[in-house]
Amino acid sequence: MSDKEQILDEFYVDAVAEVLNIGMGSAAASLSEMIDDEVKLSVPGVEFVTRLTASDRIGEKAKTDVSGVHQHFQGAFGGDAMLLFPEEQSLQLVRAVLQQDDMTLEDLTEMEQEAMTEIGNVILNSCLCSMADMFGKEMRGEIPEFVQGSINQVLTDDGNNNHTEAIVLLLNMDFAVDKKSIQGYVTFLMDVDEVMQLKQNIQEFLGE
Amino acid sequence: MPAEELLESQIIFQHVFSESASGLIIIDIEFCVVDCNPWFIKHCGIELKEIKGQNFTQIFPILEKSSIDRGVVSALKNGMSSVVSHTLNRKPFPLKNIAGQILQQQITIKPIILDDKQRYCLIQIMDVSASFNREKQLLEQVKRTKAITRKLAEEKERAQVTLSSIIDAVITTDEQGLILSMNPVAEFLIGVREEDVQNKKVCDYFKLINENTRKAIPSPVADCLQSKNIIVNEKEHILVGRERRFSVHDSVSPIINDDGVMLGTVLVFRDVTQSRALAEELNWQALHDPLTGLANRRQFESDMHTLLNKAKSDNLQHHLLYLDLDQFKVVNDTCGHDAGDELLKQITTILELKLRKSDVLSRLGGDEFGVLLESCDAENALAVANNLRQAVEGFRFGWQTRSFKIGVSIGIAEITGEEAKASEVLSAADAACYVAKESGRNRVCFHEINASASSMHQKEMQWVSRLQAALDNDCFELYLQRIQCVECQDGSSDHYEVLLRMIDESGKTIPPGAFLPAAERFNLIGSIDTWVVEKVFEKLEDLRKVNKYPDNLILSINLSGTSMANIDLLDRISCLLDESGFPAKNFCFEVTETAAIANLNQATNFLSSLRAKGCKVALDDFGSGLSSFAYLKELPVDYLKIDGLFVKDIVDDEIDKAFVESINQIGQVMSLETIAEFVENDEIMDILTEIGVNYAQGYGIHKPCSFDLLFPKT
Known about the structure:
The complex is a heterodimer of chains A (208) and B (714). Chain A has 208 residues and is of the alpha+beta class. Chain A has helices spanning 3-7, 10-35, 51-61, 87-97, 110-135, 151-156, 192-205; strands spanning 39-50, 66-75, 79-86, 139-141, 145-149, 167-177, 180-190. The longest helix of chain A has 26 residues, at 10-35. Chain B folds into four domains: 16-127, PAS domain (Beta-Lactamase); 166-278, 2-Layer Sandwich (Beta-Lactamase), CATH 3.30.450.20; 288-459, Reverse transcriptase/Diguanylate cyclase domain (Alpha-Beta Plaits); 471-710, TIM Barrel (Alpha-Beta Barrel), CATH 3.20.20.450. In chain B, strands 20, 21, 22, 23, 24, 25, 26, 27, 28, 29 and 30 form an eleven-stranded mixed β-sheet that branches. In chain B, strands 7-6-12-11-10-8-9 form a seven-stranded antiparallel β-sheet, sandwiched between helices.
């Protein structure tokens, strides 16, 4: 049995995907306005998986470290949202957004980390808001933080170790800016209870 | 919470709010400013009272539709926290530092939700100017470093390509002389691979030796490390590598940094093997005869000069031999230059076999050789010379179907150290050689050094004046030697060869061998010829006056090669004949075969004219080679005088006998009469009779005798 069948019916997942795509559209509009250049965001795939599977999936793409933004949220349901990129992709993203192709360092600088945090913050906030709108319920996002490390470190040492049986809502995300296409992931890390909350919210939204 | 604790908490919170080192603004659901802390007031330059309760975008119109505005909306409406980064934010708060510059800001916006009605948001503004500037500097520094690194890498690449392209071997070492790198040429010369020798001692893989002494040369790298000086060497060094040797120029330069610390060395070798070999080859060619490989005249003179200087300081005797081949011209002219060259090569081998290692044999000219005998007294020099002469005499040179007997005339001169120049000794030996040649060839002749004479030069100059004086004062005397008819040995023949003697100041008789070479050299020979001719006519005139003019007389007068070109002499002879009325048949003129061949056309003309007058002509010293028969067709002659060299050994030497037989036969066939010279005894005479030679001449028949004694006027 696959993860998503075990966790949530495909039907629900499709609904979530639709809502998240709306959120991404809003985020893209905000980012485009911010950097005065067209930014396109799309979510080709949404699935519910275990933390381990999520780690493996992202690990396939990110042979080295990943970096990104972590934001805790609560409200209609709670968890930890993360926007993650393979290290190399995060560099490309930030430098494309900042239009600094001649940047020569191999790591993100402090200022770049901050910019990355803002970009992640815009995307995650949009996702959360779109879901809050969908459910007609309050969601609260905490102050985002920049994270960096191996995918396992990032997905487990996130201060949510108590989510032993954590479920991950995993979004593949394409980020197109300045003629570049950058692949990243959005994850919503939740424990089983919170997933049940999510499921209930969806059911309410669908009028079931 | 008890009221006291609450109060205390409020006071603490108020302090935190006031003392915070970042800007704090609280905004209510109506987007109006509830409060802001002193830090914010200080930097925005607006009074608190003008801010409080006002819509924040109205206070700061720049913030309308900004990221901050969006963040505030998101916080108040959606409960979302936001970060507004410095880098992406183009519309920051108009906050300034003391210098009036806008602060670089990092802003967080967080919702504060007490209940549905009481919603606020907290904006926190942090001044990141310091971080921003630090990072800006860092990035610039990184950019510069990268540019330098790239340039260094390019320089390194260029240097490495240069090193691998140049033809010099380049080795770098560290300050201990351990190898850091070597280019491909160095790898080739030393016969190792760079990776195998890195960090190994440079002196373990090759050594330098002096080309001449073959002694090892101390490592120039060690020298350089010690002295810190550039060491350049262009002397004859040989690099002995693992597999091969090369002639090299080498240099070592120290690498010293700005602080004067020795970092290592650069060792450079230039392979000069080819150029050095070429230079040696050219040098060798300049000083050697390419045909025989012997030292040439230049080298010989240089060796003589050295020996001359040595002779001045040591008390040893040294001698010089001057060798002139007797039959070379004949071989060369009749068989071609290839034969002549081959003869010279073979003769060289023969001579070398008879010499000591320390003796210097050299080819001085066409068929002339020189030998320097160091530390060799006169007796030994004579022995060596005779050895050489005999070796050549015993040699037969074969070319195709022919065989030639070769002779060599050798002059010996002593090197006393008193001679000013090497050429003087050479002239002396040359003169002695000439004497040897004139005395019948295949001989050795010592140059007589007058002990009192200060130098050869003076002595030679003396000869000029002595000869001139002798000519002026008639200090020559005519001698005659009978030429005997072999068939009619009754003594009735009146055929004589006219010989010449010089009477010196003390009245002593000097043989021609002593003065003729000088006469030839100083162009007095022509005058002497003329003197002899005139003297003969004068003597005969004297005899006629007393009615003693001999009937059937034939006088053979020798003429030199030089005279063959002397028209005046020809006229003089003609005139004397006409004036005297003496029968021309009474006169025979002899010219040596060598002289005639050397000036063949002139000799032919001269001798033809004489014969036209009715005089006889004899070819002297004939038969040195069978090939000389070829000339006979050209030359108008009556007599062939067979070279005495063939005659004197005719009794014991079958070959010599065969030669004489052949010459005689040819002569007879060509209707020429033959005369044998050097007939020293009856045995020779008997053989000559048997062969059928027409005439004989020699000590065995008649010893030369004064004209006046033989034909006294009274």
